[in-house]
Amino acid sequence: LSLYSQLLPWNKASLEEKSKTLVNKMHWKLRDALLAVRMAVTGTKIGLPLFETLEILGKDEVVKRLQLSLN
Question: Is 1 a residue whose pLDDT tops 90?
Fold first, then answer.
């Protein structure tokens, strides 16, 4: 969550880079980690490309949805 709340600039490239860096650092499976983010933010397993979706929704909305999914 802190990855997204502190991310600047908020665009597809930085979202993708920072997400993949964190996934690799934590030794998670990329597919599983990104699916969890997608489910938390969109409520669905499939949809438009994830990083473009996050960019369009905007930082405030994405962080809000991630926080709601953790509660």
Answer: no
